[in-house]
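Appendix B. Chain record.
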Amino acid sequence: MKPFVLPLPAGRAGVRCLFPPPAWEAAILDSAILIVWSVTLIVWTVARFIIPMVVFWQFLRMCWYWNTPGVHAGWQFLAYFAAYSALYYFVGVYEPKLYRSQQNGKRNG
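Structure tokens predicted for this chain:
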């Protein structure tokens, strides 16, 4: 089933977004993401050894407190594991838009 789309007036047929954000806001956000990605990439050399040990500790804690009410160790392990997975994706797969534009759209390597 096709989604229902409201028709636009004839003068605005080529506009994709009715209220686009200002260009300077997008540039600031892209720069902030590039800075956070760069700092994370530098810290990642040490963090990739420390964070898995913390996640493993949370796994052991979850196994120990499995049937203890009120501890919520399973949810804490899930949160640590999800954060570690997201951080691993952010460093290993994701490339900021400004970095890609410097590389002319090509991946590094």
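Further analysis of this model is presented in Appendix C.
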